[in-house]
Amino acid sequence: MADELVLLDFWPSPFGMRVRIALAEKGIKHEYREEDLRNKSALLLQMNPVHKKIPVLIHNGKPVCESLIQVQYIDEVWHDQAPLLPSDPYQRAIARFWADFVDKKIYELGRKIWTTKGEEQEAGKKEFIECLKLLEGELGDKPYFGGENLGYVDVVLVPFYSWFLAYEKCGNFSIEAECPKLIAWAKRCLQKESVSKSLPDQEKVYGFVLQLKKIFGIE
Amino acid sequence: MAEIHVIISSCDRNVGIATALRRKPVLVNFTSKLEQTMADEDEVKLFGMWASPYSRRVELALKLKGIPYEYVEEDLSSKSCLLLKYNPVHQKIPVLVHNGKPIAESLVILEYIDETWTNNPILPQDPYDRAMARFWAKFIDEKLLMTTRKASVASGKEKEQAIEEITEQLKLLESELQGKEYFSGPSIGYLDIVASVLVFWFGNLQEALGVDMFTKEKFPIIFGWIGKVAEIDAVEVCRIPKEKHLEYIRTRLEAFKSASK
Fold first, then answer.
1. pLDDT at res. A52
2. Could you give the domains of chain B?
3. Which side of chain A, N or C, has fewer Cβ within a 10 Å radius?
4. Of residues B229 and B256, which shows the higher confidence score?
């Protein structure tokens, strides 16, 4: 019986990008469906009634929600191809810890940078860079967080790279100047087709952010 | 033959393989039994705090799996050097230290425990069921407990709204529990461990706040589950002494109110 896989997504969502990368890394055939978040489909509301958010992964009619949970699910079901989580329990715990760190910090701080100004924005920028530096420390001299190959933390973090230009323009700073190692890592990830095909262009994301600022009346 | 039996029975009684070998220096190839006993010699330390449901849930998992551990109570107003060394990123409890290696974040710790000590598994085997368990655990932590925190420090309309949100969130948990013995199915597991915050901590908090929304009448299924879970021996580790807890909550709320003036 052939697997039926549908991904409900929204092109600029870093959470959706994580799932796209995981599916691509493992060569899993699926149907991609773009959602209009101002007009959510009946299917989305039916499949994610609790949060009503994308991404939603529907596997043979059964929904899986929340991007970290989806990536782990994909890794467990298609465990033979391109494993994302390490096999050692302690290494897995470290990977889960850093994925959780990215989830708790990066999105909210990034959001702070493009939605606020003045002191609040400065505080956001400072903490954002501190978090990226911590991640650089965790990366160390490895080519990827996963070691020699793309792993769980790489998949969880690299989507935010597509938002870096937007953060830099809105915050008037250079992420590369502060965190060159991380930028080098991101560019290395983009050499992989699974990543380059899953991440939108930084200019396109910046255009989207400018539109959002207009809609929400943010200067 | 008799010597071999002595050593094996020493292992079974967890005397410690070094002691057993000193008594009866016999080289026998029983590697897997040796590894089992070495695992029993694991050093497990938990840095926790008595009023933290995140800390208590890790203790519950350790108790359910029969893993011996050393508990270290942290004074959160004066964190120990060891805690800051083991969790430099968040500087929070709980932190599990296994043979010197630290793991932080309670949900990460629970999965580590399940993968390292494979007896009495707490997560389901099937990937879809695992995804569902993780989804509801995240819901409890990121929605229910966050809203509860908001309700604790809010007042007036904001507090009312937060309490309404909590009611809706509890209703979702109530329907998730429908038709099941426990959140995890026929026996207690990961999601019950995460939801154990509802067994003692939640009721204490409600009393301290002078709120009365978490009742048997409104949530009969959850209260039915609480009754079952509270009877399990290991769950006693989650009991937070009521008067001490009420006092603690009131002190913290006072401190928060004066800090925000």
1. 97
2. 42-116 (3.40.30.10), 127-259 (1.20.1050.10)
3. N
4. B229
Instruction: Supply the DSSP string of A93-147, one letter for each residue.
Output: HHHHHHHHHHHHHHHHHHHHHHH--HHHHHHHHHHHHHHHHHHHHHHTT-SBTTB
DSSP state of B199: T
**Which of B109, B135, B139, B194 to mutate to test binding with chain A, by most A CBs within 10 Å of its CB?**
B135
Q: Pick left, alpha or beta for residue B210 (phi over 0 → left; psi -120 to 50 → alpha; otherwise beta).
A: left
Percent of residues, chain A, with pLDDT higher than 70? 100
* Residue B130 forms contact with A (CB below 8 Å): yes
Long-range residue pairs from B73-77, CB within 8 A, at least 24 positions apart, any chain: B73/B48, B73/B49, B74/B47, B74/B48, B74/B49, B76/B49
In this complex, do A97 and B116 lie within 8 Å of one another by their Cβ atoms? no
Checking if the pLDDT of A27 tops 70, the result is yes
| Helix, strand, coil percentages in chain B from 3-state DSSP, rounded to 5 | 60, 5, 30
CA B248 to chain centre: 20
Contacts within 8 Å (CB) and 24+ apart, B75-80? B76/B49, B80/B47
Predicted TM-score (pTM) of the model is: 0.90
Structure token pair of residue A25:
């890394």
- Contact call for residues A71 and A19 (beta carbons, < 8 A): yes
Crossing angle of the two packed helices A89-115 and A164-171, in degrees rounded to 10:
40
B39 touches chain A (CB under 8 A): no
C-alpha neighbours within 13 Å on the C-beta side of residue A206: 12
Per residue in B27-58, pLDDT (tens digit) is 444 445 544 554 556 899 999 999 999 999 99
